[in-house]
Specification:
The complex is a heterodimer of chains A (189) and B (584). Chain A has eight helices and six strands. With 189 residues, chain A is α/β, with parallel strands linked by helices. Chain A is globular. Chain A starts with a strand and ends with a helix. By secondary structure, chain B is an alpha/beta fold. Chain B folds into four domains: 214 residues, Thiamin diphosphate (ThDP)-binding fold, Pyr/PP domains (Rossmann fold), CATH 3.40.50.970; 97 residues, Rossmann fold (3-Layer(aba) Sandwich), CATH 3.40.50; 166 residues, Thiamin diphosphate (ThDP)-binding fold, Pyr/PP domains (Rossmann fold), CATH 3.40.50; 59 residues, 2-Layer Sandwich (Alpha-Beta Plaits). Chain B is built from 20 helices and 23 strands. The longest helix of chain B is centred in the middle third of the chain and has 22 residues. The chains are: A alpha/beta (189), B alpha/beta (584).
């Protein structure tokens, strides 16, 4: 199998590391070679963060480069816009319809761009969900990332059972059920 | 025998595993991105080995040296700038050699993801005559760690294992093996090897240069250095993570992959060079390999077409070597998203007060460096660990005590214990009058919450004596030591005014734990839009949980608010209120 390139982009503290752990576990369960690359340290303090997941027969570099991503999972609109050019021609861009103002916007030094999703739709295959709101309905706003992951799952080649299995082995015991429910919300959208 | 178990591991986790399998008995470290997780993973093997957080990298390396002298395999871990702090013992242990194998793990940060400079550890290693292994994925990180200990003992040399951020923070598959604990080496008193006074160090210098030459010769046949001969039009010498970019961009090229980057296998390189049409040297940061190769009269292309800044990539190599432009859409122009202090961070509250009083701060290394940027804009200098206090002292000596009345030094608790304490001694000794604010959040924050000498807990999770920072300051001679809650704006403001006016050294300790330390459910504030007068006071400290609505009123993101109450205490109109538990 050709190497599959996935990116998870968002704001430091949004749980990109958990999501990448799930994707990594999935690739191993599928018997693939896999490499992940993530950001620790300063950028995790509310900065723009990106995680790369690559799996396939044999993976060399641990990062995804411009024009190569099969799927980009964006936890926030502005971050979707920042990294959209990493997508392959027919790649899928999954966006959590959520905005977090970066500090230059808060201080008035910059403007949060308008109509991000509409503009991205003109160039890319875009799938959106307000996962943060959906997650609140489930009773825990933090599980929004599993909802977004559920949509991404529609563009990847793993069965629902494989996803469930990895979720069970990755998230804290107490939150397995709500995380699976959240995954279902996205998977069935 | 059953198949070895394959698991996915972070580069740093694999280094820890390698140390464990190699039979390491003592490890000491100070946290520093991207090296921190090595110790955090190592501690899971505490039944079989001892590991600690030391107050700084120099101490950590000396602990490891002591353990090596005593005859066990030992290591210290740090980030590249930490290696500067450890340089003193490192340069001299190079002369001493080892008894038990000794490895110093140093993590470089090309691209400055979380650092103040982009220095290349291989340059320091060359200056200190220390051999260096450099892995290029998690499996190699584990394997090279073990090999470093074997070579260290075989050649009587301390080894450096050099990693970079991309290796340290990438995950890949690793085959697990069992731990093999070599027998402790007997301690045989030999001061010619362990007391580095001039008469002993002189012959040791001769001896270690001889050892390095032997090692360089052996490097020609060591399995860590390997040639992958393919098409001979392009030949590439590379190592570490850049090897992966080479494999990605030039799958058909011939490659000489160096696992040992100091000393270099000259014969192997000369042979390889003679077989390829164009030789490239692909290495991030400084031209360490390239300059040596060229000094041997070998024609090679390197920094003429590659940068010495930042990380490399396969696309970069495609452009530079093949002249190919990868097909990708144009990147959009978007506002940046620099890191910020977290919602509920006690530093924000302190900086709000300093900003209000129009004070300048000589800053230090930690989350609180983020107080340099708008809207807080308080921190004017950031150099290295501990430099806040000493640079404030230098300003005073340059311009007199009145000049620093509108300055303070700000330093974290962990950084204060790292090297700041020396600088405070200097202030007392040399009759300074400045004000030092210790932002004591009870942890080493930026690196992800590690314990330190004042938290009362060791790396291995054991309770221990917690250094009393106020008492320590008093013992140094500081008469005016005040502890204040970081969120008590009124007391904080009054204290800062009083202490900066004083013609004596004072220390203000803002003791409030990092908001991320407690996992308990936090309170939540909300804005009553009808009472909001749109004055913008609550927005001044720049809390990322707060945004302005289109009509100028303020909105608090309930997924981000941690209930610190700073915004509430700034609102004069009672528009910000705690959300009652039953309404959440």
């Amino acid at each position: 199998m050709a190497v599959k390139n996935i990116m998870i982009v968002g704001v430091g503290g949004q749980g990109t590391l958990l999501t990448s752990r799930i994707l990594g576990g999935l690739a191993i369960a599928g018997g693939y070679d896999v490499k992940l690359s993530e950001v620790h340290g300063m950028a995790q303090r509310g900065g723009s963060v990106v995680t790369f997941v690559r799996y396939g027969e044999k993976v060399a570099e641990p990062v995804v480069e411009e024009g190569q991503a099969d799927v980009i999972i964006a936890f926030e609109q502005l971050e979707a816009l920042r990294y959209a050019h990493f997508l392959k021609k027919d790649g899928a861009l999954i966006i959590n319809d959520w905005k977090i103002d970066p500090m230059p916007v808060v201080t008035g030094a910059a403007q949060y761009p308008e109509h991000i999703i509409e503009n991205l739709k003109e160039k890319y295959k875009v799938y959106t969900v307000n996962a943060t709101e959906e997650a609140k309905k489930l009773g825990n706003s933090r599980v929004f990332n599993l909802i977004v992951l559920g949509i991404a799952a529609q563009h990847m080649d793993f069965s629902k059972e494989q996803w469930y299995n990895v979720i069970e082995h990755t998230v804290p015991q107490k939150t397995i059920e709500i995380n699976k429910k959240a995954f279902d919300v996205g998977f069935e959208l | 025998m059953s198949e070895p178990k394959k698991v996915i591991m972070l580069g740093n986790e694999a280094i820890a595993r390698g140390a464990y399998e190699a039979g390491v008995k003592v490890s000491a470290a100070y946290p520093g991105t991207p090296s921190t997780e090595i110790s955090e993973y190592l501690v899971q093997y505490k039944e079989d080995l001892y590991c600690e957080w030391s107050p700084n990298e120099k101490v950590a390396t000396e602990v490891a040296i002591g353990a090596s002298v005593a005859g066990v395999r030992a290591m210290s871990c740090m980030k590249h700038v930490g290696f500067n702090v450890a340089a003193d013992p490192a340069y001299t242990v190079s002369y001493m050699g080892v008894n038990g194998g000794l490895v110093i793990v140093v993590a470089d940060d090309p691209g400055l993801y979380s650092s103040q400079n982009e220095q290349d550890t291989r340059m320091v290693a060359r200056a200190a005559a220390l051999p260096v292994l450099e892995p290029s994925d998690s499996q190699e990180a584990k394997d090279y760690m073990k090999m470093a200990f074997e070579l260290s003992e075989r050649f009587d040399r301390p080894f450096i294992l050099r990693t970079t951020t991309r290796l340290a923070h990438s995950q890949g598959l690793v085959e697990l093996m069992d731990r093999t604990e070599p027998e402790d080496k007997p301690y045989i008193k030999d001061i010619r090897k362990t007391v580095m006074m001039p008469g002993n160090a002189k012959p040791r210098h001769v001896e270690i240069e001889k050892r390095n030459l032997e090692l360089a010769k052996a490097a020609d046949t060591l399995s860590v250095n390997r040639v992958e001969m393919k098409n001979t039009e392009i030949g590439v010498i590379t190592s570490g993570i850049p090897y992966q970019y080479v494999k990605e961009a030039l799958p058909e090229a011939s490659v000489l992959k160096l696992g040992m980057v100091n000393p270099l296998p000259r014969k192997m390189i000369e042979e390889f060079a003679s077989k390829v049409d164009t030789l490239y040297v692909v290495e991030e940061l400084e031209p360490v390999i390239e300059e040596q190769v060229k000094s041997w009269g070998i024609a090679a292309v390197g920094k003429e077409i590659f940068t010495i800044q930042g990380e490399y990539s396969a696309n970069m190599l495609r452009r530079a070597i093949l002249g190919e432009e990868p097909s990708a859409a144009e990147p959009a122009t978007v506002p940046g998203r620099p890191p910020v202090l977290c919602p509920g961070c006690p530093h924000r509250s302190v900086y709000y007060v300093l900003n209000k009083l129009k004070l300048h701060a000589a800053g230090d290394i930690g989350c609180y460096t983020l107080g340099a940027v708008a809207p807080l804009s308080v921190v004017d200098t950031t150099i290295c660990m501990g430099a806040s206090i000493s640079s404030l002292h230098g300003m005073e000596k340059a311009k007199g005590k009145d000049y620093i009345k509108n300055w303070v030094a700000v330093i974290g608790d962990s950084t204060f214990l790292h090297t700041g304490v020396n600088s405070l001694m200097n202030m007392m000794y040399n009759r300074a009058t400045g004000t030092v604010i210790i932002l004591d959040n009870s942890t080493t924050g930026m690196t992800g919450h590690q314990d330190h000498a004042a938290t009362g807990k060791t790396l291995q999770g054991d309770p221990t004596y917690a250094i009393d920072i106020p008492a320590l300051c008093r013992a140094i001679g500081v008469k005016h030591v005040t502890e204040v809650n970081a969120f008590d704006l009124e007391t904080l403001e009054r204290t800062v005014k009083e202490e900066t006016a004083r013609d004596e050294v004072s220390v203000i300790i803002t003791k409030t734990p990092c908001v991320l330390l407690s996992k308990a459910k936090k309170p939540l504030y909300t804005v009553h839009e009808d009472r909001c007068r749109k004055c913008g006071m609550c927005m001044k400290p720049g809390c990322p949980a707060m945004t302005k609505n289109a009509d100028g009123t303020v909105y608090i993101d309930d997924t981000m608010c941690t209930g610190c109450g700073l915004c509430e205490s700034l609102c004069k109109f009672g528009a910000i209120e705690l959300v009652k538990e039953e309404n959440r």
